[in-house]
Amino acid sequence: MGHLKSFFVVSFCLAALGLFHQSVLHAAQIAEIKPEKNRLEVAVAAYGPLYLPLLVAHEAGYFSKRGVNLNVSLLSATAAAQALLSGSVDIYQGGTAVIHANVAGSDVIYVGASVDRSTLVLFGQKGLMTFESLRGKSVATTSVGAFGEIAVRKSAKERAMEVGKDIKLLYHKGPPEALVTFVAANADGLVVTPPQSELARSKGFPVIIDYYQQGFRVVGPGTGVARSFMQRDPNTLKIFFMGYLDGVKRAIEDPSFALKISGQHTKISDTRVLEEGYAEGLKVWNRDMTVDPEAIRVVLEQSTVPKASELDPKRFYDNALIREVNRDYGSKLFPGEVR
Question: Using CA atoms, how far apart are residues 213 and 176, in angstroms rounded to an integer?
Fold first, then answer.
Protein backbone atom coordinates (compact mmCIF):
# COMPACT_ATOMS: atom_id res chain seq x y z
CA MET A 1 0.00 0.00 0.00
CA GLY A 2 2.90 2.31 0.85
CA HIS A 3 4.49 1.64 -2.52
CA LEU A 4 1.21 2.44 -4.26
CA LYS A 5 0.91 5.73 -2.35
CA SER A 6 4.50 6.63 -3.26
CA PHE A 7 3.75 5.81 -6.88
CA PHE A 8 0.80 8.22 -6.97
CA VAL A 9 2.81 10.95 -5.23
CA VAL A 10 5.66 10.58 -7.70
CA SER A 11 3.22 10.47 -10.63
CA PHE A 12 1.50 13.61 -9.41
CA CYS A 13 4.81 15.44 -8.99
CA LEU A 14 5.99 14.40 -12.45
CA ALA A 15 2.69 15.54 -13.97
CA ALA A 16 2.90 18.88 -12.16
CA LEU A 17 6.51 19.27 -13.24
CA GLY A 18 5.50 18.52 -16.82
CA LEU A 19 2.78 21.17 -16.72
CA PHE A 20 5.25 23.64 -15.22
CA HIS A 21 7.78 22.98 -17.97
CA GLN A 22 5.05 23.28 -20.59
CA SER A 23 4.00 26.64 -19.12
CA VAL A 24 7.59 27.87 -19.07
CA LEU A 25 8.06 26.69 -22.64
CA HIS A 26 4.94 28.52 -23.81
CA ALA A 27 6.04 31.68 -21.97
CA ALA A 28 9.49 31.48 -23.55
CA GLN A 29 8.00 30.93 -27.00
CA ILE A 30 5.66 33.92 -26.68
CA ALA A 31 8.57 36.09 -25.44
CA GLU A 32 10.70 35.12 -28.44
CA ILE A 33 8.12 35.94 -31.09
CA LYS A 34 9.64 37.89 -33.95
CA PRO A 35 7.29 40.13 -35.93
CA GLU A 36 7.07 39.73 -39.69
CA LYS A 37 6.86 43.53 -39.95
CA ASN A 38 7.96 46.23 -37.54
CA ARG A 39 5.41 48.93 -38.34
CA LEU A 40 1.63 48.74 -38.15
CA GLU A 41 -0.91 51.19 -39.47
CA VAL A 42 -3.76 51.04 -36.97
CA ALA A 43 -6.97 52.99 -37.48
CA VAL A 44 -9.68 53.64 -34.91
CA ALA A 45 -13.29 54.60 -35.47
CA ALA A 46 -13.23 57.18 -32.67
CA TYR A 47 -11.25 58.39 -29.68
CA GLY A 48 -12.86 57.66 -26.37
CA PRO A 49 -13.04 55.24 -23.44
CA LEU A 50 -13.75 52.17 -25.58
CA TYR A 51 -10.43 52.69 -27.35
CA LEU A 52 -8.46 53.72 -24.28
CA PRO A 53 -6.48 50.47 -23.71
CA LEU A 54 -5.04 50.74 -27.22
CA LEU A 55 -4.09 54.39 -26.73
CA VAL A 56 -2.60 53.65 -23.29
CA ALA A 57 -0.57 50.76 -24.69
CA HIS A 58 0.68 52.91 -27.55
CA GLU A 59 1.67 55.85 -25.35
CA ALA A 60 3.30 53.55 -22.77
CA GLY A 61 5.46 51.89 -25.45
CA TYR A 62 4.10 48.36 -25.03
CA PHE A 63 4.18 47.70 -28.77
CA SER A 64 7.50 49.33 -29.58
CA LYS A 65 9.31 47.44 -26.82
CA ARG A 66 8.45 44.25 -28.74
CA GLY A 67 9.75 45.62 -32.01
CA VAL A 68 6.50 46.87 -33.55
CA ASN A 69 5.86 50.59 -33.96
CA LEU A 70 2.30 51.81 -34.41
CA ASN A 71 0.89 54.74 -36.30
CA VAL A 72 -2.62 55.33 -34.91
CA SER A 73 -5.07 57.37 -36.95
CA LEU A 74 -8.78 58.12 -37.11
CA LEU A 75 -10.74 56.52 -39.95
CA SER A 76 -14.44 56.48 -40.79
CA ALA A 77 -16.23 53.15 -40.87
CA THR A 78 -17.14 53.64 -44.54
CA ALA A 79 -13.45 53.75 -45.55
CA ALA A 80 -12.27 50.94 -43.25
CA ALA A 81 -12.79 47.86 -45.41
CA GLN A 82 -11.11 49.29 -48.49
CA ALA A 83 -8.18 50.50 -46.37
CA LEU A 84 -7.73 46.99 -44.93
CA LEU A 85 -7.94 45.31 -48.32
CA SER A 86 -5.54 47.77 -49.95
CA GLY A 87 -3.02 47.42 -47.13
CA SER A 88 -3.00 51.12 -46.30
CA VAL A 89 -4.32 50.06 -42.88
CA ASP A 90 -3.26 46.82 -41.19
CA ILE A 91 -5.69 46.82 -38.26
CA TYR A 92 -9.01 48.57 -37.84
CA GLN A 93 -10.35 48.97 -34.32
CA GLY A 94 -13.97 49.63 -35.00
CA GLY A 95 -17.50 48.35 -35.01
CA THR A 96 -19.77 46.94 -37.68
CA ALA A 97 -17.68 47.94 -40.72
CA VAL A 98 -15.98 44.53 -40.85
CA ILE A 99 -19.30 42.68 -40.76
CA HIS A 100 -20.91 44.83 -43.46
CA ALA A 101 -17.85 44.50 -45.71
CA ASN A 102 -17.77 40.72 -45.26
CA VAL A 103 -21.48 40.47 -46.09
CA ALA A 104 -20.71 42.41 -49.29
CA GLY A 105 -18.00 39.90 -50.22
CA SER A 106 -14.78 41.42 -48.83
CA ASP A 107 -12.50 38.95 -47.05
CA VAL A 108 -12.11 40.92 -43.83
CA ILE A 109 -12.68 39.41 -40.40
CA TYR A 110 -12.45 40.05 -36.69
CA VAL A 111 -9.50 38.43 -34.94
CA GLY A 112 -10.32 39.79 -31.50
CA ALA A 113 -13.02 41.63 -29.57
CA SER A 114 -11.69 44.50 -27.46
CA VAL A 115 -15.27 45.12 -26.34
CA ASP A 116 -18.33 42.92 -26.79
CA ARG A 117 -20.89 44.74 -24.65
CA SER A 118 -22.49 47.98 -25.75
CA THR A 119 -22.13 51.28 -23.90
CA LEU A 120 -24.55 53.04 -26.25
CA VAL A 121 -27.09 55.35 -24.69
CA LEU A 122 -30.21 56.68 -26.41
CA PHE A 123 -31.21 60.18 -25.29
CA GLY A 124 -34.25 62.28 -26.04
CA GLN A 125 -34.74 66.02 -26.02
CA LYS A 126 -36.21 67.22 -22.74
CA GLY A 127 -39.74 65.94 -22.47
CA LEU A 128 -39.11 62.87 -24.64
CA MET A 129 -38.82 60.02 -22.13
CA THR A 130 -39.79 56.86 -24.02
CA PHE A 131 -38.84 55.19 -27.27
CA GLU A 132 -42.43 55.50 -28.44
CA SER A 133 -42.19 59.28 -28.02
CA LEU A 134 -39.67 59.28 -30.89
CA ARG A 135 -42.31 58.14 -33.39
CA GLY A 136 -42.32 60.55 -36.31
CA LYS A 137 -39.10 62.15 -35.08
CA SER A 138 -35.37 62.04 -35.84
CA VAL A 139 -32.40 60.47 -34.04
CA ALA A 140 -28.80 61.59 -34.53
CA THR A 141 -26.32 58.74 -34.89
CA THR A 142 -22.94 58.07 -36.48
CA SER A 143 -22.33 56.34 -39.83
CA VAL A 144 -24.67 54.15 -41.84
CA GLY A 145 -24.82 50.62 -40.42
CA ALA A 146 -22.89 51.48 -37.26
CA PHE A 147 -23.96 50.20 -33.85
CA GLY A 148 -26.13 53.23 -33.19
CA GLU A 149 -28.28 52.31 -36.16
CA ILE A 150 -28.25 48.61 -35.22
CA ALA A 151 -29.43 49.42 -31.67
CA VAL A 152 -32.21 51.75 -32.81
CA ARG A 153 -33.41 49.26 -35.43
CA LYS A 154 -33.53 46.51 -32.81
CA SER A 155 -35.41 48.69 -30.34
CA ALA A 156 -37.85 49.81 -33.03
CA LYS A 157 -38.55 46.24 -34.15
CA GLU A 158 -39.25 45.21 -30.56
CA ARG A 159 -41.95 47.90 -30.45
CA ALA A 160 -43.50 47.19 -33.85
CA MET A 161 -41.88 50.33 -35.25
CA GLU A 162 -39.61 50.74 -38.23
CA VAL A 163 -36.58 52.91 -38.98
CA GLY A 164 -37.22 54.96 -42.10
CA LYS A 165 -40.96 54.81 -41.59
CA ASP A 166 -41.55 55.70 -37.94
CA ILE A 167 -38.11 57.09 -37.06
CA LYS A 168 -35.65 59.03 -39.19
CA LEU A 169 -31.94 58.50 -38.58
CA LEU A 170 -29.57 61.43 -39.12
CA TYR A 171 -26.09 60.13 -39.96
CA HIS A 172 -22.83 61.81 -38.98
CA LYS A 173 -19.10 61.33 -39.37
CA GLY A 174 -18.70 60.47 -35.70
CA PRO A 175 -20.10 60.87 -32.16
CA PRO A 176 -18.92 64.49 -31.69
CA GLU A 177 -20.78 65.63 -34.79
CA ALA A 178 -23.93 63.73 -33.78
CA LEU A 179 -23.82 65.38 -30.35
CA VAL A 180 -23.54 68.85 -31.90
CA THR A 181 -26.66 68.24 -34.01
CA PHE A 182 -28.59 67.01 -30.98
CA VAL A 183 -27.53 69.79 -28.61
CA ALA A 184 -28.51 72.34 -31.26
CA ALA A 185 -32.00 70.75 -31.20
CA ASN A 186 -31.70 69.67 -34.82
CA ALA A 187 -32.50 66.08 -33.80
CA ASP A 188 -35.08 64.76 -31.35
CA GLY A 189 -32.93 61.87 -30.17
CA LEU A 190 -29.26 60.92 -29.93
CA VAL A 191 -27.58 57.51 -29.71
CA VAL A 192 -23.87 57.60 -28.77
CA THR A 193 -21.16 56.05 -26.62
CA PRO A 194 -18.85 57.72 -24.05
CA PRO A 195 -17.55 60.37 -23.78
CA GLN A 196 -20.34 62.01 -25.80
CA SER A 197 -22.97 60.13 -23.78
CA GLU A 198 -21.48 61.58 -20.59
CA LEU A 199 -21.57 65.07 -22.09
CA ALA A 200 -25.25 64.58 -22.93
CA ARG A 201 -25.96 63.34 -19.39
CA SER A 202 -24.17 66.35 -17.94
CA LYS A 203 -26.51 68.65 -19.89
CA GLY A 204 -29.55 66.98 -18.35
CA PHE A 205 -30.97 65.22 -21.41
CA PRO A 206 -33.17 62.28 -20.41
CA VAL A 207 -31.98 58.73 -21.00
CA ILE A 208 -34.47 56.67 -22.97
CA ILE A 209 -32.43 53.45 -23.20
CA ASP A 210 -29.11 52.49 -21.61
CA TYR A 211 -28.05 49.60 -23.84
CA TYR A 212 -25.42 48.35 -21.40
CA GLN A 213 -28.10 47.86 -18.76
CA GLN A 214 -30.18 46.08 -21.38
CA GLY A 215 -27.34 43.60 -21.94
CA PHE A 216 -26.94 44.51 -25.62
CA ARG A 217 -23.88 42.63 -26.93
CA VAL A 218 -21.86 43.81 -29.91
CA VAL A 219 -18.26 43.55 -31.10
CA GLY A 220 -17.31 47.15 -30.84
CA PRO A 221 -14.57 47.94 -31.12
CA GLY A 222 -13.23 44.71 -32.52
CA THR A 223 -9.86 44.04 -34.12
CA GLY A 224 -10.57 43.87 -37.84
CA VAL A 225 -8.05 42.71 -40.45
CA ALA A 226 -7.90 41.37 -43.98
CA ARG A 227 -7.74 37.58 -43.69
CA SER A 228 -4.62 37.63 -45.86
CA PHE A 229 -2.87 39.85 -43.28
CA MET A 230 -3.62 37.37 -40.49
CA GLN A 231 -2.24 34.53 -42.59
CA ARG A 232 0.85 36.45 -43.66
CA ASP A 233 1.75 38.20 -40.39
CA PRO A 234 0.52 36.06 -37.47
CA ASN A 235 3.43 36.92 -35.18
CA THR A 236 2.91 40.63 -35.68
CA LEU A 237 -0.72 40.22 -34.70
CA LYS A 238 0.23 38.21 -31.62
CA ILE A 239 2.57 41.00 -30.56
CA PHE A 240 -0.23 43.51 -31.14
CA PHE A 241 -2.52 41.50 -28.86
CA MET A 242 0.16 41.21 -26.16
CA GLY A 243 0.75 44.96 -26.19
CA TYR A 244 -2.97 45.61 -26.19
CA LEU A 245 -3.52 43.36 -23.15
CA ASP A 246 -0.70 45.21 -21.39
CA GLY A 247 -2.67 48.36 -22.15
CA VAL A 248 -5.84 46.89 -20.65
CA LYS A 249 -3.97 46.05 -17.45
CA ARG A 250 -2.33 49.49 -17.26
CA ALA A 251 -5.62 51.28 -17.92
CA ILE A 252 -7.27 49.30 -15.11
CA GLU A 253 -4.46 49.67 -12.59
CA ASP A 254 -3.36 53.23 -13.37
CA PRO A 255 -6.50 55.38 -13.79
CA SER A 256 -4.62 58.66 -13.57
CA PHE A 257 -2.44 57.74 -16.55
CA ALA A 258 -5.46 56.47 -18.47
CA LEU A 259 -7.40 59.68 -17.79
CA LYS A 260 -4.45 61.77 -18.95
CA ILE A 261 -4.30 59.85 -22.24
CA SER A 262 -8.08 60.06 -22.64
CA GLY A 263 -8.03 63.84 -22.21
CA GLN A 264 -5.21 64.23 -24.73
CA HIS A 265 -7.05 62.32 -27.45
CA THR A 266 -10.64 63.43 -26.85
CA LYS A 267 -9.68 67.07 -26.15
CA ILE A 268 -12.00 66.99 -23.14
CA SER A 269 -10.73 68.85 -20.10
CA ASP A 270 -13.70 68.31 -17.78
CA THR A 271 -12.35 65.86 -15.19
CA ARG A 272 -15.80 64.64 -14.18
CA VAL A 273 -16.76 63.81 -17.76
CA LEU A 274 -13.45 61.99 -18.27
CA GLU A 275 -13.90 60.02 -15.06
CA GLU A 276 -17.45 59.03 -15.95
CA GLY A 277 -16.32 57.94 -19.40
CA TYR A 278 -13.48 55.95 -17.87
CA ALA A 279 -15.95 54.18 -15.57
CA GLU A 280 -18.07 53.25 -18.60
CA GLY A 281 -15.02 51.85 -20.40
CA LEU A 282 -13.91 49.94 -17.34
CA LYS A 283 -17.18 47.99 -17.41
CA VAL A 284 -16.62 46.61 -20.90
CA TRP A 285 -12.88 46.28 -21.64
CA ASN A 286 -12.27 42.62 -22.45
CA ARG A 287 -9.50 40.71 -20.75
CA ASP A 288 -10.44 37.67 -22.82
CA MET A 289 -10.68 39.10 -26.31
CA THR A 290 -12.24 36.13 -28.08
CA VAL A 291 -15.14 36.97 -30.38
CA ASP A 292 -18.61 35.86 -29.29
CA PRO A 293 -20.66 34.78 -32.34
CA GLU A 294 -23.87 36.07 -30.71
CA ALA A 295 -22.40 39.60 -30.78
CA ILE A 296 -22.14 39.23 -34.56
CA ARG A 297 -25.52 37.57 -35.00
CA VAL A 298 -27.34 40.62 -33.61
CA VAL A 299 -25.83 42.79 -36.38
CA LEU A 300 -26.77 40.29 -39.08
CA GLU A 301 -30.34 40.14 -37.76
CA GLN A 302 -30.72 43.94 -38.10
CA SER A 303 -29.02 44.15 -41.49
CA THR A 304 -30.96 45.62 -44.41
CA VAL A 305 -29.14 43.26 -46.81
CA PRO A 306 -31.43 40.44 -47.98
CA LYS A 307 -30.69 37.08 -46.27
CA ALA A 308 -27.85 38.52 -44.17
CA SER A 309 -29.58 37.13 -41.09
CA GLU A 310 -29.16 33.62 -42.52
CA LEU A 311 -25.35 33.83 -42.68
CA ASP A 312 -23.22 31.84 -40.23
CA PRO A 313 -21.52 34.20 -37.73
CA LYS A 314 -18.42 31.96 -37.83
CA ARG A 315 -17.47 33.29 -41.26
CA PHE A 316 -16.87 36.72 -39.73
CA TYR A 317 -14.13 35.90 -37.21
CA ASP A 318 -11.15 33.71 -36.36
CA ASN A 319 -10.20 33.31 -32.69
CA ALA A 320 -7.11 31.15 -33.32
CA LEU A 321 -4.42 33.76 -32.62
CA ILE A 322 -6.08 35.42 -29.64
CA ARG A 323 -6.65 32.01 -28.04
CA GLU A 324 -2.91 31.31 -28.31
CA VAL A 325 -2.06 34.68 -26.79
CA ASN A 326 -4.64 34.18 -24.03
CA ARG A 327 -3.18 30.79 -23.17
CA ASP A 328 0.45 31.87 -23.13
CA TYR A 329 0.25 35.51 -22.05
CA GLY A 330 -3.18 36.84 -21.16
CA SER A 331 -3.71 34.13 -18.55
CA LYS A 332 -0.56 35.36 -16.76
CA LEU A 333 -1.75 38.98 -16.78
CA PHE A 334 -5.27 38.14 -15.65
CA PRO A 335 -5.13 34.83 -13.76
CA GLY A 336 -8.54 33.35 -13.20
CA GLU A 337 -10.14 35.63 -15.78
CA VAL A 338 -8.37 34.51 -18.96
CA ARG A 339 -7.50 30.96 -19.98
Answer: 23
